[in-house]
């Protein structure tokens, strides 16, 4: 009996042990399933996080708003491409075209002096060959300074030393008067400093006076009542015999009343005169004769030009 009971207990214990083992295996299988399920869920969730969500499709009105932004982004790229094409092209393929109103075409024309030629009546002035006294080409101003009057024994009028000179000291006829008398060439004596040959040269009255008048009209404001260097150190003519440049100097008369003033003016050689000779001219033309040589020379140039054309731009 005892053995049977023991056998039954053993069987029941064995059955209980098998049931407990089965339960443990089922629990282990459940845990493994849960672990695998948790791992698979975690991998899916990380995979979903790694992928960025796609933006929702834009609506039609949103596409219209985004279109200008896209065009603005494309414009710089188009400008860069157009600049690259312009740079790659040679310069000759890009012609420079300026409008007619561009400042480069509106260059001011240089000043050109032109005197007005007028007929001279026979009653205003008359010329008689020989020793006959010639009347002045313009009215004489009244002396305001008595110290400028000629000394005792010296007359205010002299015999005209040249056809273009008047009977007054240091005074020449006007251009209109000389042209009316068909005096178009002004001659004078020069001497070469190298070969010492002496000869005469002629200057065209109208051409040379227009050249000097144009120079004065263009540069008078910048002179400041002083003779420019081209007048103080004149360029002398070329010698006709030895071909020496800047060598033919004018022959100036020893007597001041016989100086060929018009010839020196047209040749722009008044700078060859001494200061005493220039002061003599200013004295007898009622000009201020004190000061440096460049100032007296300036007054001599303008005084002679005023005699030739009283209506010109030669007043001080």
Q: Would you mind describing this structure in some detail?
A:
The chain is mostly helical. 44% of the residues lie in helices and 6% in strands. The protein is built from 8 helices and 3 strands. A 3-stranded antiparallel β-sheet has the order 2-1-3. Helix 7 (275-284) crosses helix 8. It is rod-shaped and about 195 Å long. The N and C termini lie far apart (169 Å).
Q: Name the poorly predicted regions.
A: 41-50, 120-136
Q: Kindly, what is the distance between the CA atoms of the first and last residues, rounded to a whole number of angstroms?
A: 169 Å
Mean pLDDT over all positions? 76
The helix fraction, in percent, is 40-55%
Rounded Rg = 57 Å
Provide a quick synopsis of the model:
With 316 residues, the chain is mainly α. It has helices spanning 2-50, 60-88, 175-180, 205-223, 229-232, 261-266, 275-284, 293-308; strands at residues 185-192, 198-204, 248-250.
Notable traits:
single chain, 316 residues, mainly alpha, 3-stranded antiparallel sheet, 8 helices, 3 strands
